[in-house]
Structures are given as C-alpha cells and as structure tokens.
Amino acid sequence: MLNSETAYDVLVVGGGNAGLCAAITAREAGARVLLVEHAPQSMRGGNSRHTRNLRAMHATPTAVLTEAYAEQEYWDDLQRVTGGQTDEGLARTAIQASAQVAPWMEARGVRFQPSLKGTLNLSRTNAFFLGGGKALVNAYYRTAERLGVQVLYDTQVTALTLRNGAVHEAVMISQGFPAVVRARAVVASAGGFQANIGWLKQYWGEAAENFRIRGTPYAQGGVLKSLLEQGVASVGDPTQCHAVAIDARAPKFDGGIVTRLDCVPFSIVVDRDGQRFYDEGEDAWPKRYAIWGRLVAQRPGQIAYSIIDAKSERLFMPSVFPAIRAGSIGELATRLGLDAAVLEQTVRRFNAAVRPGHFDSQQLDGCATEGLHPSKSHWARAIDTPPFLAYPLCPGITFTYLGVKVNARAQVVLEDGRPVANLFASGEIMAGNILGKGYLAGFGMTIGTVFGRIAGTEAAAHARG
Amino acid sequence: MHEAETRATARRAMEICNACRYCEGYCAVFPAMELRRTFTDGDLDYLANLCHDCRGCYYSCQYAPPHEFGVNLPRTFAELRQVTWVEHAWPRAGARLFARNGLVVALAAALGVALVLLLTMALQPADVLFGVHRAPGAFYVVIPMAAMVAVAGVTFGFALLAMLATVVRFWRATGSGGLPRGRPLLRALGDVLTLRNLGGGGQGCNDVDEGFSQTRRWLHHCLFYGFGLCFASTTVAAGYEHLLGLRAPYPFWSWPVVLGTLGGLGMVIGTIGLFALKLAGDAAPRAPRLLGADVALLALLGMTAATGLVLLALRATGAMGVLLAVHLGFVLALFLAMPYSRFMHGAFRAAALLRNAMEHEPTDAR
Ligand SMILES: Cc1cc2nc3c(=O)[nH]c(=O)nc-3n(C[C@H](O)[C@H](O)[C@H](O)COP(=O)(O)OP(=O)(O)OC[C@H]3O[C@@H](n4cnc5c(N)ncnc54)[C@H](O)[C@@H]3O)c2cc1C
Ligand code: SF4
Ligand code: SF4
C-alpha cells in the first residue's frame, strides 16, 4: 500500500519495459524509487509483455545475432520507414546505445534465444527474448524488487501537476483510493493512448469502435493528455497509429501476436460488398504488413475477407483461429455473410485476369494479373481448388504516434522550448521523437531500453544532485 | 468425456502456441510442435509426454490466465499425460484404480503385502521371528529364500511385462513405429539421463514461482540415480548369492550395502525434497487432480528407501524380522504399482524423447 509519508527520489509512472529500465537504473544509482503500474500484477507490463525481440546494432556476430548490422545501415532503415520524420540526434543515440543493451539486459535477468534458423529471419538485426516479452518483464520486476524498488500495482496516475516548470505532484488512484505522491524527479513511461477508444474516435469517428487493440487495455494515455494540457510540447501526428490487419475474431484487447495473419499476399481480399480494393501482392508481406490496417479501416464496417484456395493453405505461418472453409465460392460467401453472386463474379474476374507465370511464394515472383483494377502484382494464381478458405480481417492497433517532446537527456520539453526540470520520459510516450511515422521491427523495445536507462540516470542525478 | 475435453484444451493451446512460438527456446515441445500445423490425438499425447513440466512457458505466457485464452501448458499437459497413462495401460483396470486413488491404493498395497509376509512368518516360532540373526543367510531364517525369490520374481516379472506392453501401446498410438537407429537412441538416452529439457533452455525451471532454479532437476537426479543405485545393489547381491554363493547379509563395506545405502539416501533426499517443492510451489500451473498420484509415488519410493535404510541400521537386532517384512512389502508394492502409477511418466517420457530424437534426425541424404 502507498504510504504518503515516504519521501521518494524518483517516481516512475508505468511498468512496461521503458519504466522498468528507468526504475532499475535509478535505483542502481542510489535513488529511492517508486514504480506505479495501472494494471494488476497478473497483467502488468503493458505492450512490452507482447513483444519478442529488439533491434541491436553490432559490428561482429554475437551469441544472439548473426553477421553484422552497422550504424549506417540501421540509420538508413530508419530513414526509409520514417521518410525522414525523425530527430537525428535522438535516433543516433538509440542506435549507438543499442550495441550495448544486450549485456546490460542479461545482467538484469533477461535471457536471449540463440539466433534462430527458421520462423522469422530477423536474427541478423533483432535479438529474440527467450520466452518473449512477458519473460523479460518478469525478469525486470524481480530485479527491481531485489534492488529495493517499491512497486505498486492497480495504481493509475491521473495527472502530473506542473508548477513553476517542474512536476509538483502526481495525482493517482491507488488500489481504488485517491492518492498524491511527491517525488524529486518523475519518469513518465506510460505508453501511448491506443486503448482509449474515445480518444481514437476524435480522429477516426465511429470506425474506431471496430478496431482491435493488439496490446494492453491500460494504454489510456492519461499521463500524456495531462502533460499536453499543461503546455508540454507534442511530437507525432495525433491522428496516426500503427495499424495492421489482424484476424477479426481477435479479442478487443491483448490479442497480441497470434492474431496476425500472413495469408494476404497469397489471397484476394474483398470488402463487405464482395469487391477487391487493393493490390494484395504489391510487395513481400513484412513490408506491406502495416498498410493493411489502414486499408481495412477505410472499408465499410472496418471488415474485409482474405480468400485463398487449397493450394495456398500451407504457405504461411499457422494462425490462431481456424479458416472458414467451404466447398465452393458461393457457399463460402454465404458462410461469410456476403452476396454469393457478387463474390463469385469477383473471383471469376480475378481468375480470368491471372497471367501464367512461375509461382514462387518465397520471392517477388511477377505472377500478376492483367487488365484488372486493382491489379495484383505478385503471387496471383487462380482461386479454383476447393476447399476455399477465408479469414476475416479487421484493423489491429499496435500503438499511437502522438507523444511528448524530449531533449537528449530524455527531459520533457515545454512548448516554449524550456525543459521541465524534473520530468523525464522514456518508451512509447516519447517514441514519436524518433519514429515520426512507420515502424521498424524491434525498434520500440530499443527506444524504451535506451531512453529508459537515460531517463533513470538523469532522474536519479536530478533527485540526488 | 473428460479425455475428450482434456485433448480439446491441449489442441487449442497448441494452436495458440503454434501461432505465437515465443517459447520455442524452452524445451523440445515447441520445435516438435512447429513440425505440425494440425494436431492429431496421437500428436497431442506425444507432446504432452515430451513436456517435462518445468513451467517456464506458463510464467512467460502472455495468454496465461486471467487472459481469456487461458493458456496453461504445464497444467493441460499434466492432465493429458495422466489420460495417456491410463488409456494405454495394460491391463486398463489397474490404471483406473491408481488414477483415482493413488495414495490410498499404494499404501494399502504395501501394508497388505507386508501383512501377508508377516502372516507367513507367523508360521515361524516367535523366537525365530524376533530373534537376533547375524550369520550368513540370516534373512532367510525369517522368510525362506525360495518364498522371497518367488514372490519378488513374479511381481517384478509382471511389472516389467505390463510396463513393456503399455509403452508399446503408447508408441504405436503416437505415430508410425519406425525402428530407432543408433543416433536418435543415444540422443534420447542423453536427454533422459541429463533431464536436458528440465532446464528451461539452461536457466532451470520455475520450481515454486516465476524465478528459475535447478533445485527440482537436482532432486530428481537424486531420486533417479538413487533408484538406479538401489537397483544395482539388488542386482549385485543377486550375483553374490547365486553366482558366488555368498549369502546375505553382507558386511557394511560390501558393494551391495554401499550401493544400497547411497541409493537409499539419494531416494530419501529426492522424495522429501520433491514433496517439499510441491507444498511450497505455486498451484496455478499444477493439475490438482494429479496431486494424489504424485504423492502416492513419492510416498512409495520414499518409504521403500527409508524402510531399507532402517533395516540396514537395525539388522543385527530383534526388530530385523518385522522390518524385513515391511521393507519387502514396500518393494513389492512398488513393483505392483509401477505400471499404473506416476512411475510410468519415466517410460512414456523416454518414448516421447526417442520419437523426438527420431523426428529431428535428418533423413538420409539422397
Ligand atoms: C502485439 C505487439 C507486439 C510487439 N512486438 C514488438 C517487438 O517484438 N519488438 C519491439 O521492439 N516492439 C514490439 N512492439 C511494440 C512495443 O510493445 C512497444 O514499443 C514497447 O513495449 C513500449 O514500451 P513502454 O514501456 O513504453 O510501454 P508499455 O510496455 O505499454 O508500458 C506502459 C505501461 O504503463 C502503464 N500505464 C499506462 N498508463 C498509466 C497510468 N496512467 N498510470 C500508471 N501506469 C500506466 C501500463 O499499464 C503499462 O504497463 C509490439 C507491440 C505489440 C502490441
Ligand atoms: S505458452 Fe504462451 S507464450 Fe509460450 S508459445 Fe504458447 S502461447 Fe506463446
Ligand atoms: S517442459 Fe516446460 S516449457 Fe516445455 S512445455 Fe513443459 S512446462 Fe512448458
């Protein structure tokens, strides 16, 4: 329970990867640290509990990464996905520091998987956590508690009150009761606002009701909102979020990685009206993964159906919900609640437009349609071999881009350019400084780890200095 | 009904895991799962027995309760293992009995056998039964050697036969029965002897909570190798008796006694330690339905070892006769219970590890 008499040096808001790294670092520097986490213990760890890897620069092969991944290549990758919407100084800080994070993490209980052969060939750029993000979060909580960080679950910060350019107090509801905490320094690591459907509706309208939130329901953005209302400078487009197409049968929250569907490039995707609306074979799936959430969000009812035939059933990772099957396209349409005649016509037109070619699921194979709008540029094969299979798609929101602006010390900056003396930020809540748009797999955890450590160091120094 | 439900739960869990795969570094279950897209009953039975119940995947699962998917592999697999032991047991009725009421049955069996032996001995005059016997052949003064060998031979022979029949049925049910060759056999043997998969990918298992430790692995080694030493002791003693004509009891610094003492101590430490871990541990990843069977086996093993050690300590006193009867009672009850008790987990797991080693053996290059 919270004892309001206790004097804390550092208050960390949010117990995901970024908050835990900050809390551990500050505690190791000698600070008295309180970490508050909105979720109950069983669901602690925010979106971090759903992650699987982090992107790390390295000059030579390591125990967990193959070959080399140099700073320049890392930077080029970031430039490509963000289209230049990145703060180069902060980005380079994250990239350079990523070379040292693995040993730091291992020393605090995180374990990595030896580089993988099969499933995802990211082991050159990304180090995989043994057991995934929840194992990582568990390890950090154990380490934090062993070091003497006080952890409070079921505690939601509702406001960080600024006074005279500094955080005066944190207002919270702790285990059902209102409370106020004062600390010499505060680290905000409360993630984005993607689970706040009301907030999403401001930009997406009623469509947001049909979104699934891939991660934690506790990403309500309360801390972010409180800070922006008090004149903290924002970064990132508030209307934008990272949205992928996931299985529409996914739970509203916390569906995580298993609701992912990799069948799109081998399929045709139709909307509720039975019509195709985008080139399914535009590029290799990892590169196109993230545009389909938005595409589906723009269709009526925010729903679409990815349809394949028996030939393609085994070409992609198994998914968690079984495909909807039928012996004919008409029957499949009925199962999906679509107009059978329309879907039959869509498939017939597609099949007629497919040009002969050498199909190869492993690369851009040039098997394309001709004279069809929209066209399909690769992996176009007639859908003609029963059973026919369908997966319903809906938008799955990973995170939002809106965040607070920070300087190189991870210090939160006001709209007039002055820093808030005792307020630092790490993780998703400030990732928009570096990832203005787009996404680089594994970069979220890198940003959280690197800036969590910087924020922890700076907060402890401020509190004790 | 219950079997079908257990398999349905396991199948659902495997389908979730196969779309996730975050745990693939923990143990052999996940790489084996990844070889499949769908899971037959046989696949599930095999995977359940391949699971060593280290619990690593429970604590790291983002879909563990209270998540609505409620994935709890160690518990689901433990329940399914129990189903497979009963379903494949030969004869089945014996397995049902133990599955339902393991501890009571085991203890009753032990005491029953001891009682029978005591009754046999009652045929002896009291001064023989309670007298002090130290000369070679002393044990056989109280229980005639022919009776001892006959009873032990029949029970042990039956146990071996039943276990063999059971494992063969399991092997057939879980896949095609190609004959194992050298390399997979060696690999499986190594897996059995080192409990490699109980390592959670090297960090140990979650013995009591989300922290990792090697305690359970070491305790299991104590029990396993202790049992092995006791078995060796008995075998050497039989050799002394029948080949060399040396008659028991043997002096303290003789092979049978040294092996038996070390083995007995190992078993006692192992059983008590494993029992303590059960009491201390988090109940969530456990199958409560199995607790009885677990405890029954631990109790039988522990009592067998403990009565043996007591017999050794007091063999030169008047208590020897009764202690011998009780010890033999436990030994024989252990034999009788073996094919139907949790003891079979070893045999099933060894078979699963062998299948696993064969699956991963690269097929001959053409
Ligand atoms: C399904 C999925 C898979 C992903 N996979 C990867 C991956 O493999 N690699 C990668 O790098 N990134 C991945 N990401 C992105 C990654 O999850 C984030 O970049 C990262 O977790 C952000 O860490 P964080 O600590 O800032 O936020 P979070 O981990 O979300 O932590 C924020 C914490 O703050 C708490 N909180 C929120 N509001 C309050 C409040 N008002 N008061 C108190 N506490 C509060 C929340 O409960 C939560 O625990 C994935 C995301 C999803 C959804
Ligand atoms: S146990 Fe959970 S985390 Fe591990 S592979 Fe299965 S679903 Fe994924
Ligand atoms: S051995 Fe451990 S990690 Fe593997 S399935 Fe069993 S409990 Fe999970």
Write up what this structure looks like:
The complex is a heterodimer of chains A (465) and B (366). Chain A is an alpha/beta fold. Chain A contains twelve helices and 19 strands. Chain A has helices at residues 17-28, 71-82, 88-107, 132-147, 197-204, 222-229, 285-288, 292-297, 329-336, 340-353, 428-431, 443-464; strands at 8-13, 33-36, 53-55, 126-128, 150-152, 155-163, 166-174, 177-181, 183-188, 212-213, 234-235, 241-247, 268-271, 304-308, 324-326, 388-400, 403-404, 411-413, 419-425. In chain A, helix 1 runs parallel beside helix 4, helix 3 packs across helix 12 (443-464) and helix 9 (329-336) packs across helix 10 (340-353). The mean pLDDT of chain A is 95. Chain B is mainly alpha-helical and 366 residues long. Helices cover 69% and strands 0% of the residues of chain B. Chain B contains 15 helices and no strands. The interface between A and B is medium-sized, with 33 and 29 residues. The structure holds flavin-adenine dinucleotide and iron/sulfur cluster (2 copies). One iron/sulfur cluster binds at residues 16-17, 20-23, 57, 60-63, 71, 73 of chain B.
Structural class label of chain B: mainly alpha
The succession of helices and strands of chain B, N to C, reads HHHHHHHHHHHHHHH
Low-confidence stretches of chain A: none
Total number of β-strand segments of chain B? Answer: 0
Number of strands of chain A: 19
Q: Termini separation of chain A (Å)? A: 28 Å
In terms of DSSP E residues, the strand content of chain B is under 5%
Which descriptors would you attach to this protein?
heterodimer; A: 465 residues; alpha/beta; FAD/NAD(P)-binding domain; Flavocytochrome C3, Chain A, domain 1; 2 domains; six-stranded mixed sheet; 29% helix; 21% strand; elongated; B: 366 residues; mainly alpha; 0% strand; binds flavin-adenine dinucleotide; binds iron/sulfur cluster
